[in-house]
Amino acid sequence: MLRLAQLYSTVGRLAKAIKLTEQVLAADPRATQSRLILQRLYLDIQDLKAAEAITRTAPEPNPVLNSVMALAGHDWRTAGSEAYRAAALRTIPVVGEPMPIAALRLHARSSGKYLRAIDVFSERSQSPVGPKRGGDKGVAAVSRRSFGFGKLVVLR
Length: 156
Known about the structure:
- The chain is mainly alpha-helical.
- Helix content is 61%, strand content 5%.
- The chain contains eight helices and two strands, in the order ααααααααββ.
- It has a two-stranded antiparallel sheet.
């Protein structure tokens, strides 16, 4: 039923998608995926109060849900902090990944803490950033455009 709701959402039938997702969540209130999808649907129709209610009524605090709500409120610091917490707990699901990643990028831009964000992105992608193989002892330095905010430069 959740997949059908996602299909309805894709074709723009948001009311039907919301109704189905609400039914799925009512059947299993602990289901994180359906809660994330419902939160996104409410934000898509700009119903901030309903999205906040979905976040508040989660059976336990969820840093991904909190990060998304902070993004919606343009609070990059909280959004980034919650996204870092979700990354540390390894609780960012594939269905909910774009928003916490956006939160990390916006937090890095606003705080200047690019290397911290790069560490998370590198770990998530399982592709290390730093010295090349073959004995290159370069040090990774970052300009403002790395990982969506600039380019990576290896200094020797």
